[in-house]
Amino acid sequence: xxxxxxxxxxxxxxxxxxxxxxxxxxxxxxxxxxxxxxxxxxxxxxxxxxxxxxxxxxxxxxxxxxxxxxxxxxxxxxxxxxxxxxxxxxxxxxxxxxxxxxxxxxxxxxxxxxxxxxxxxxxxxxxxxxxxxxxxxxxxxxxxxxxxxxxxxxxxxxxxxxxxxxxxxxxxxxx
Amino acid sequence: xxxxxxxxxxxxxxxxxxxxxxxxxxxxxxxxxxxxxxxxxxxxxxxxxxxxxxxxxxxxxxxxxxxxxxxxxxxxxxxxxxxxxxxxxxxxxxxxxxxxxxxxxxxxxxxxxxxxxxxxxxxxxxxxxxxxxxxxxxxxxxxxxxxxxxxxxxxxxxxxxxxxxxxxxxxxxxxxxxxxxxxxxxxxxxxxxxxxxxxxxxxxxxxxxxxxxxxxxxxxxxxxxxxxxxxxxxxxxxxxxxxxxxxxxxxxxxxxxxxxxxxxxxxxxxxxxxxxxxxxxxxxxxxxxxxxxxxxxxxxxxxxxxxxxxxxxxxxxxxxxxxxxxxxxxxxxxxxxxxxxxxxxxxxxxxxxxxxxxxxxxxxxxxxxxxxxxxxxxxxxxxxxxxxxxxxxxxxxxxxxxxxxxxxxxxxxxxxxxxxxxxxxxxxxxxxxxxxxxxxxxxxxxxxxxxxxxxxxxxxxxxxxxxxxxxxxxxxxxxxxxxxxxxxxxxxxxxxxxxxxxxxxxxxxxxxxxxxxxxxxxxxxxxxxxxxxxxxxxxxxxxxxxxxxxxxxxxxxxxxxxxxxxxxxxxxxxxxx
Lengths: 175, 577
What we know:
Structural class of chain A: alpha+beta
Helix content of chain A: 25-40%
Largest interface: A-B, 22 and 22 residues
Helix content of chain B: 25-40%
CATH architecture of the largest domain in chain A: 2-Layer Sandwich
Number of strands of chain A: 9
Radius of gyration of chain B: 24 Å
CATH topology of the largest domain in chain A: Alpha-Beta Plaits
Domain Thiamine pyrophosphate enzyme N-terminal TPP-binding (chain B): 20-135
Distance between the termini of chain B: 49 Å
CATH topology of the largest domain in chain B: Rossmann fold
Number of strands of chain B: 20
Order of helices and strands of chain A: EHEEHEEHHEEHEEH
Structural class of chain B: alpha/beta
EC number (chain B): 2.2.1.6
Shape of chain A: elongated
InterPro entries (chain B): Acetolactate_synth_lsu, AHAS_TPP, DHS-like_NAD/FAD-binding_dom, THDP-binding, Thiamin_PyroP_enz_cen_dom, Thiamin_PyroP_enz_TPP-bd_dom, TPP-bd_CS, TPP_enz
Low-confidence stretches of chain A: none
CATH superfamily of the largest domain in chain A: ACT domain
Domain Thiamine pyrophosphate enzyme central (chain B): 210-343
CATH superfamily of the largest domain in chain B: Thiamin diphosphate (ThDP)-binding fold, Pyr/PP domains
GO cellular component, one term (chain B): acetolactate synthase complex
Radius of gyration of chain A: 19 Å
Mean pLDDT of chain B: 96
Number of domains of chain B: 3
Oligomer: heterodimer
Number of helices of chain A: 6
Largest sheet of chain B: 6 strands, parallel
Mean pLDDT of chain A: 92
CATH class of the largest domain in chain B: Alpha Beta
Distance between the termini of chain A: 43 Å
């Protein structure tokens, strides 16, 4: 039995309606949970980039990549280990403004966690933090003691350390 | 090499003309060379049907009696001709009724374009009358799908649909068109699609992999080929034959690969799989190099994967990269269209004849003959066997017929015993195992290949799933020969119940109607055979008829199909009884 690892899957696709459905269906059929998903523009015009986080065996992820690449509107799909990528998550905390005024500790927390205040009014302020999943979770636990009014986090986004030869591939494929 | 007529070339790029979306759909079909489509009208597709009325001299629409029948007919047409089958339906239930056929086409790689009408774009998502999210529903079972909401999208999307359906590993495509898009007028111009940026239909061939494959094959002492439908879809029958003949390799077919090589070819050693032949199944676990050509190692072929050809080096000639290493780990994967890869590999192949190794297959064939085939084809006991019916069809058709089968015992018997002299002669529902497939598929096959005899072999269960398509035969006069092997059981399920569920025949007994009366109700010639001595004449009479013909053969009720590899068993554990 091979062991499960966290893999980041990067998928370059045409920017068309319905692709998220096609891609998620591949995971659904195999009863595999997607830990997080992010879809955004890529470095190439009219090409979207999906970044998915999954916890599977390497054999499973290879087969999934094959199935994903079969989709007509998928240009190329890759999978990477954590070690092969630089990755981040982003999160926002909504906290009471009173905390900022009355609690000396909060400024230290903001400085030490390398988070930043991005919005403030008389009732609440919003703290933004980018980092690894662990860093985000650590800050959550610290702030939780002081009362969090709202919390939201993004999916993982990742950049590979090695080259991802999609631009070259696109040059080869007739536009 | 395809030779284009002047008319075809003109149709590839049309000059701009202002027309409605509905007329554009028809013009797109004509531009793609479609002259026949199957379907069922309804509210949301009425504008297109109205245009079909106008174009009926160029584009023949066949009204099936159910949308499922339309898809299976389109599949039968596609499988018999190698062209794209087209099916059309309205929104909502019309569209959902297509799904079984679409799923069948997807798993059996059949090129098909389905067109569905949809409620007006302003109503989408409002649960309007006969609205379903057919794009969402069909996503897992289509190669590609798209919803058109504006008329000006029609030409490009239709061109893309046909290109995707027929290229690479073929498959079904669904195009959903909202009603407003069918009414809108726009400047129509048609250009055939020849590429899609993100889509590489045929992977690049690697000389390195061909050299590695050839080296393994040349050095093999006990090479064994298992070929699949990829040979037929790639139109590589001649290249495949040359390949196995030069290297002298015993070769077995998958269910869908049947007819790519004549049944009586000296290197044809039968069919692999759950109800395949004894020798190729058994010797899969004896070969030293297993060469898979255009097949996908379906679980019905491999049985227990952990005990499948573990001793062999595996070479896989395949067009779909996702199939490589999916089920069976390969040593060498040769990607590409087999027509090309086999051609390139051929000159490097060492001429060989593996006579002793081939003899091992023949020795086991004799075991199968004594234990199974003799009783199936030359029975001495009273009840009619399904095998002897197929034998009579072989004799009457001289192996030239297209044999369309449904799903179940009769399917396996027909696959085991039908003789094929030419390619595209075996049409069956393989991957999905769709009961109800054969009758409409036979209609499509006959219309696609009117010069050929088309015999649909169907069980009493599957026949009743799409029996209403007799109405389509009545209306179109498609001269299909229908043979129902009636054992008054859902035979294959009953066989499993007998073998694995202590003969508890839960809901497999069929109380059947008077099939002859039904056929006659549709004004079809019909006959029933209950005795062996009447069989040959009845089959002859059916084959000699110039019209559609229904023949019911009352076969032994509790006959079983052997050999058999029970689910989860190894291919070498194939049972003879």
